[in-house]
């Protein structure tokens, strides 16, 4: 009786020819059987073989050869041994070819499934779509009755996703959720094995679970369920792992896309915030009667925490420079609120000290718990040139006098937002000695060159001492300070917001 399934090493044409050749040489009957006694090939006439010889394939016993020649002598024995050697070599070659064919077939299957899957998910931007394609493709390729994919959210603030398909999708979903922490793929060959792991087996027969791993991180899990028939094999697990890895890479790429989208949205919002902030600044050059103000504010990032203030009034100009602690959007928002408050309060009160008192109380009440504070210097310049100055922890203004000298005007005071009951005193300077007064933020004096040296207040004061005897106007002073600053820093990136405001008489 012939076997239902022929062994891999058996080659019908070649081994039938071998039987014919040996039967002809021995003038007898030759039969080839497997280990169970199933007839594979035969040739020659006569009764069943009275001599049985075992043969091996790749070193393992594989079957029997029965021979019944008319007589067996020395010559016949030699022929039989040579013939058995030839049979074993033929079987070895056939078996190796079978391994190669099977391996090639598996590889072709894997490549074909992977190619179709990658082509399907190419360009998909929805993680549910990617997961759904994996569940469907894996169920078809691995002949599963149900499949499920659970995955981590790809966007910050998103929720985990789970997609299932097939007859017993609830069981598949439960297995996928259980498998989220797996380090490697696994196969449960029976419902009992699955239940022992704490997962309700339901109608499951064989179950396979594979983590979605890519770039050193678990991003989810794939679960496949067969309700009956042959269980999952190691080859199935390999293909499932390949599909899962490609899915994990796709989800990882979607995460990168989401991050790029967020970054792009933030970039656009920061650009808009920068435009709004710059639009809130006073004009670079303002003239009110006999007083002129030349100001510039250069943020280190898209938005900054510096501002200069120029508010014309019937009494002259209210001017100042302010600097919020820290950097970035929070500092910029506080600075915008501060500048708005100053402009609103200045409609009724132009005294620098009183303005600082009022804004300090507001900042303490509204953002005191955030730990932010504001340094500021305010100067009211009257039509007659008289200066009223109040400061809240800001670098002291530098006064270029009418006599060609330089004076440092230090009025003290703690930053706004530190002490709610602080009272800010004013200092009044005679307008007869006033030519130009310079206010600036510490982004000027604390800037560094390529060698790490700080620009410093000494350098600024020396520059202004050289300028003072020439009696320059506000715009000339500002340009001289900026030119010297740029020569000093060169190509070094700006580390802090920079603001310079020069106020003086119109020449």
Count of separate structural domains: 3
CATH homologous superfamily annotation of the largest domain: PPM-type phosphatase domain
Q: Largest beta sheet: what is the strand line-up? A: 10-11-20-19-16-17
The proportion of residues in beta strands is: 25-35%
Give a short summary of the structure.
The chain is of the alpha+beta class. The chain is 41% helix and 26% strand.
Structural account:
With 507 residues, the protein is an alpha+beta fold. The protein has three domains: 12-114, Beta-Lactamase; 123-259, Beta-Lactamase, CATH 3.30.450.40; 281-505, Phosphatase 2c, domain 1 (4-Layer Sandwich). The protein contains eleven helices and 20 strands. The protein has helices at 12-26, 74-121, 127-141, 169-178, 191-196, 234-280, 329-345, 352-367, 442-445, 456-467, 474-489; strands at residues 28-34, 39-43, 51-57, 60-69, 146-151, 161-166, 186-188, 206-214, 217-226, 285-288, 291-298, 306-313, 316-324, 374-382, 387-392, 398-401, 406-408, 427-429, 434-440, 498-505. The strands form four sheets. A six-stranded antiparallel sheet has the order 10-11-20-19-16-17. Strand 8 and strand 9 (217-226) form a beta hairpin. Residues 104-115 have low confidence and may be disordered.
Write the layout of secondary structure elements.
Blueprint: H1 12-26, E1 28-34, E2 39-43, E3 51-57, E4 60-69, H2 74-121, H3 127-141, E5 146-151, E6 161-166, H4 169-178, E7 186-188, H5 191-196, E8 206-214, E9 217-226, H6 234-280, E10 285-288, E11 291-298, E12 306-313, E13 316-324, H7 329-345, H8 352-367, E14 374-382, E15 387-392, E16 398-401, E17 406-408, E18 427-429, E19 434-440, H9 442-445, H10 456-467, H11 474-489, E20 498-505
Antiparallel strand pairs: 1-2, 1-4, 3-4, 5-6, 5-9, 7-8, 8-9, 10-11, 11-20, 12-13, 13-14, 14-15, 15-18, 16-17, 16-19, 19-20
């Amino acid at each position: 009786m012939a076997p239902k399934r022929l062994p891999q090493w058996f080659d019908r044409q070649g081994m039938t020819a071998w039987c014919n050749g040996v039967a002809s040489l021995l003038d007898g009957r030759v039969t080839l059987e497997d280990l169970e006694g199933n007839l594979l090939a035969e040739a020659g006439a006569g009764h069943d073989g009275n001599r049985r010889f075992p043969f091996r394939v790749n070193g393992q016993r594989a079957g029997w050869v029965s021979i019944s020649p008319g007589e067996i002598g020395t010559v016949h024995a030699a022929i039989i041994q040579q013939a058995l050697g030839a049979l074993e070599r033929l079987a070895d070659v056939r078996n190796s070819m079978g391994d190669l064919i099977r391996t090639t077939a598996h590889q072709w299957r894997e490549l074909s499934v992977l190619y179709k899957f990658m082509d399907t998910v190419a360009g998909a931007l929805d993680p549910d779509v990617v997961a759904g394609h994996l569940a469907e493709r894996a169920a078809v390729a691995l002949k599963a009755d149900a499949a499920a994919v659970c995955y981590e959210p790809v966007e910050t603030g998103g929720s985990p996703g789970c997609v299932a398909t097939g007859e017993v999708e609830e069981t598949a979903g439960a297995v996928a959720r259980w498998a989220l922490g797996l380090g490697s793929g696994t196969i449960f060959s029976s419902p009992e094995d699955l239940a022992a792991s704490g997962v309700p087996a339901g109608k499951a027969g064989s179950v396979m679970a594979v983590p979605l791993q890519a770039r050193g991180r678990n991003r989810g899990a794939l679960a496949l369920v067969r309700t009956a028939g042959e269980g999952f094999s190691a080859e199935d697990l390999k293909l499932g792992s390949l599909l899962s890895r490609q899915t994990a890479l796709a989800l990882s790429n979607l995460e990168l896309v989401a991050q790029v989208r967020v970054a792009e949205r933030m970039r656009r919002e920061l650009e808009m915030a920068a435009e709004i902030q710059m639009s809130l600044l006073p004009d670079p050059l303002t003239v009110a009667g006999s007083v002129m103000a030349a100001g510039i504010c250069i943020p280190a990032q898209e938005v900054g925490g510096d501002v200069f203030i120029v508010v014309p009034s019937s009494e002259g100009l209210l001017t100042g420079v302010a600097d919020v602690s820290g950097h970035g959007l929070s500092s910029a928002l506080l600075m915008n609120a501060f500048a708005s408050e100053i402009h609103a309060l200045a409609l009724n009160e132009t005294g620098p000290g009183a303005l600082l008192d009022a804004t300090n109380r507001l900042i303490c009440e509204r953002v005191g718990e955030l730990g932010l504070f504001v340094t500021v210097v305010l100067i009211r310049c009257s039509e007659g040139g008289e200066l009223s100055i109040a400061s809240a922890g800001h670098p002291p203004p530098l006064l270029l006098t009418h006599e060609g000298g330089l004076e440092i005007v230090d009025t003290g005071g703690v930053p706004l937002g530190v002490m709610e009951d602080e009272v800010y005193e004013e200092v009044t300077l005679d307008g007869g000695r006033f030519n130009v007064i310079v206010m600036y933020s510490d982004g000027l004096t604390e800037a560094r060159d390529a060698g790490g040296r700080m620009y410093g207040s000494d350098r600024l004061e020396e520059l202004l001492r050289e300028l003072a005897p020439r009696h320059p106007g506000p715009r000339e002073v500002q340009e001289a300070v900026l030119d010297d600053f740029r020569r000093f820093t060169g190509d070094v990136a700006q580390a802090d917001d920079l603001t310079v405001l020069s106020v003086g008489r119109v020449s």
